[in-house]
Each structure stands twice: as C-alpha cells, then as structure tokens.
C-alpha cells in the first residue's frame, strides 16, 4: 500500500491519518511534489466527496512551504483573489481544492487567473486502490476486517471514496454492537445497510 503520511495527532489507539495513493490520485501526488512547474504557481484540485482533497491540501501546506485553500468554491472570491496575489508577491505556490462538479467563478479577475492554473482531478479508485482504502480506514479505526473482506466487498459495493468509508464504518459499528469479530455475516449486513439488499443491487 502506497501512502503519504500526515503529521496529525489522534487520541486513543487510532493510527495517524494518511493519504492512500493509487490509480485515482497518483498523478495528483506527483503534481503536488512538483509545484515549481505549475503555471503561475497555482493548481486547482477537484474531486468527489471523501476523496482526500482536504488531506492533500494539508499535506501540501505542511510539506512544501506552499499555501492551500480548501473548499475554495465555497469561500469569498475576493478573499481568494487577495490570497492569490499574496502568493504571487511572496513567491510560494498556492493549491485550491474544489468540488468535482466544477467551480463557477463570478469575479472576472479571479476567473481569468484560475483559468490559467494547473487543473487536477482525483479519479475513481480501481480494485487495488479500493482495497487499500478499505484497509487504511479499518486500520485508523483499529478494526480487524477479517481475512478476505476486501475480496468479498469490493466487487459488490459502490465504487466511490465515500462508499468505501461508509461500509468500513458500518462494519465497525455492527461488530461493536454485536460484540463479534467482523466476519462474512457482518460484511453482508454492512453492505445491505449501506447499499440496500443484495438482490436490489443486482437489478
């Protein structure tokens, strides 16, 4: 499993948060490590919910000396424009994260500058990355998924970052609630709870 570790502190037995690197985001990790090559020192990172945009922004700000604005599409455009100007004046790269649906910018000056930025997008996880994400979420919870869990779950579940996180959380909840290890009966019930009954998923 390829990961970028984050300098975060957790209480309890949980492992530190990390970014799982795979087919959907390897190009993003490589681009963030080469910010000197960005046009006008600016990059915009788009991606679906729970895909790690915020984690990438935190890693970038803490490891590269650059600046990061998370959820830029929800922030005041004038403030973002000023932040972009400061980054250019002080000579550091600026990363902005936005929703995968796109960023509709009203402020003309900001729109022209963001249009010239490097455009990055996190893609969907393939089977290998989905497996690694599942194991990473389980490790952060201190959850033993059980042997064969990814092989059973990945082909049967929605292929999205949010769905992977939800099903691990549901397995954890059911296992704790029933006071049993995470076995196939728990995996199956977690699938039903998060995605509907199996028969409905096959239609």
The helix-and-strand class reads alpha/beta
The helix fraction, in percent, is 40-55%
Low-pLDDT runs: 7-16, 199-203
How many helices in DSSP terms? Answer: 9
**N- to C-terminal separation?**
33 Å
How would you name the CATH homologous superfamily of the largest domain?
Answer: P-loop containing nucleotide triphosphate hydrolases
Number of DSSP strand runs? 6
Give a structural overview.
The protein has helices at residues 26-32, 53-63, 77-90, 108-115, 127-141, 149-153, 161-178, 184-195, 198-202, and strands at 2-5, 18-21, 42-47, 67-69, 94-99, 118-121. With 203 residues, the protein is α/β, with parallel strands linked by helices. The protein is elongated and about 60 Å long. Mean pLDDT is 90; it is low at 7-16 and 199-203. The two termini are 33 Å apart. The strands form two sheets. A four-stranded parallel β-sheet has the order 4-5-3-6, with helices on both faces. The chain has a two-stranded antiparallel ribbon with strand order 1-2. It has two domains: 25-121, Rossmann fold (3-Layer(aba) Sandwich); 127-202, Orthogonal Bundle (Helicase, Ruva Protein, domain 3), CATH 1.10.8.
